[in-house]
Structures are given as structure tokens and as C-alpha cells.
Design a protein that fits this description.
Order of helices and strands: HEEHEHEHEHEHEHEEEEEEEHHE
Number of strands: 15
Number of helices: 9
Largest sheet: 9 strands, mixed
Shape: globular
Distance between the termini: 38 Å
Strand order of the largest sheet: 14-13-12-11-7-10-9-8-15
Oligomer: single chain
Amino acid sequence: MEVETNSAALIVDNPQMPSSLPELEKLSMIEPENASKTPKVVTPSISPLKSPISPRKFKLGMIINSSSTVDGHISSIAKPSSSCSLLDLVVLDTKEREGESMKTWLKTNNISATDTEIHWGEDGLQQLLASDIEAVYIIVPADFQKECVMRSLEAGKHVLLNDPVSTSFADFKDQQKCAKQHGKFIQFSTMFVHQYNVRRFIDRVLCDEGFGEILKIHCHVRLCYDDLDRVGVKMPLGESDGSIRVIGRYCVLVSALFFSRMGILAHSAQVKSMELGRKGEVSSAKCVVKFTKGRELEFDVGYTSHASRQSIDLLAENKTAQMKDFIIEHPDRLATYRVYDKAPSSSGTMEIVRGEAIDVAGGPPEQFMMWRRFAELATSLDKQGGWDHTEQTAECRELANVALQTKRILIALAMSIDNSFEEVIIDDIDYQ
């Protein structure tokens, strides 16, 4: 049953949903709860424990290729609420020294040449790696990405990557291994985008003892072409801009994050059906991802010329929790969750008998929360001296495992298309 509302998030009483939420400042730092133990996987505590102490100003460096670099998160670094300070910027293309293009780029991205030291080419990269910055944001072409990442980690810097598409699964596993060896944190920026509202939704469901075990997650998304720039895609669409990669990754990421907190991991992935657009891109698709312990994600995603619609439903035996606007935030950053209770009808079918909507004030903009959370998690590793298995570093391990699962599931879905929609088994992830 589909319930239409104007709210940002909903919770339905069928197969899953939780309750109250912490205060705004604590919400951005909620730690998950210890779930059932799975070999090699330690999940964080669900209860809202105190998060790692955030530094007043986290010392950040950045590596870009040229002034053609486009990234919507850069301009927010200069805001006090980001908890970060951009001290060093490396531009690999030394030709950018001449002309006005780099000056224009700096102004567009709210970067002050007075506060940020600009370095050029290989010499500049060496200077950045030898500096006392704590982390590096890397935005370079795929050909240079792995080298920049590995050198940064080996130099004792935490790493944030802006492009999960250009990183192969094998490369990311190597990078995770290197990060662990050097006691550093590496993650994709997409792992932090949209987390604020989604984390509140997840924590609410998991903390509600009366909700029951979540058996299934269902996502339905139709994204308007006019909104594509809000998920990092430019028109016209290309073959690599399919709806599974662009929209489905959010469904996969949220589900992997949710199930990981219960010690449940990805098992297989399959594309059930799809349609292609003019450029050969996947314009719409229906997919199924199976997890351990019989859990399952079903998602139906696609592009549309009409208004965007997005919903995620967590289904338990007698309840359903629903959230809207889980990919693109509500314009007012509102969050409304709805929970519905279900009971057997006289005909034997399950019907909704009551529902509850919970409105929560919106939090800080997601672009600020991304930098803040990255700084907090990187600092938590530094305080612990590396990747130990304590509660203080549990969320770092959780996000590492979710990132590995997300990338591997998307690869499996691509393989399913190439193999006539066959189910593809996922059994090659080395969990942290």
C-alpha cells in the first residue's frame, strides 16, 4: 500500500520502524548498537553514545587536476560549521599557473589564496604530503587516483575520495588495506551525503523495541531530469549515467548501512528487469539484493519528466516504517517519519489499523555534515592510535564495510545485466 504525503519521511506499521530522536547536535554523531556478531565484522552500538571529539579546525589538503574540477562540496569547507580548514591545495596541471582560470575557480569555490597555500604539479604534491595536514580530499582523473590515494595514506594522511565510480573494487580493497596498515581512514564522499536524515530514521527504527525485526527493505524512486544535478549528474545523460548506478546506489548504501548494524551482510544481487534510454543508459530498473539471515532489498528506480518521488520502506512482520526524501533532501530540510501498525483482517490479509507521524526539525545542511563527520571519524582513529576493535572506532569500520558492500553490490548488478539477468553471488568481501 502506498501512502502519499507532503512530508519528508514516513514510517509505516508493517515490517519495521522505531521512535524518539536525540537533540540536533547529538544526532549528527549517533553511534549504532552492537548487533549479533558475525566473523570479521564488528558493528557499532545502536544507542546514542557520545561521538568522537571533533577538532575545532581539522587541517585539510586537497588535490585536483585543473580548474575544470567540479565538486559541490568544496565551497562549504570555508564555513565554520564544517570543522575543517583548507590549508593546502595541489593543482596537478602546471599549465594552470598562467591565465585567470585558476583564480576564477578559487573564487567560485570560496577558497581564499591568503588562507590556502597553492602548490603545483609533482613538486607541489610532495610538499603537501610532507606537511602537517591531517587529511586529503582527492578529486583527480581515474588514471591518477590510485597513486594519489596510496601516497597520501603512506604519508600518514586520512583520505576522502569524491568519485566512487572510478575506483575499482580491487583497488578500493588495496586502499582499505593500506589505510588500515597506517592507521588512517579512507572513504568516499557519497558515504556521508544524505546521512543526517537517514541516520535518524535508521536509529529510530532500531531503537524501537516494539517494532520487531526488519525483514525487508523496499525503495521506489523516480528522479526528475531537472533534479539530476543534485545527485552529481549532468545532462545529457551518457551510457554510464544509468539509474542503477546514479539512483540505485543510494538504495543499496542505505540498506547496507541498515543491515550491517544487525550483523547482516550482502549475499547476492540480481537485476529483474530494465529499460534503456536513448544513449544506452539504464533509464529504469527493478533489482533485488539478498542479504544473510533471509533479509532482502527490493528497489525500483528510474528517471522521469514529472516531479521526483522517493520513498524507502522498512518492513517488519506487523509494522512498516516509511521515509520520504531520503536521496534529495526536503527543501526545508524537514524530516517526517511515519509508522503504521498492521493486523490480520477478517479475510486473512494484513491491513493497516493505525499510524503515527513524527516530525523532526531539520539539521545542518548535508554538505557541512559531510566534512564534520569525516573530521570526527578520522580524529577518532588518531586518538585510538589506529584501527583497533573498540567502540570508539566502530563507526569507521562500519562505514568501511558498507562502502565495500555498496561497491561490490553495484558491480554484481552490472554483472547480472551482462549475464542475462542472472543472480550474482557476493562472497569475496574482506570485512574490516
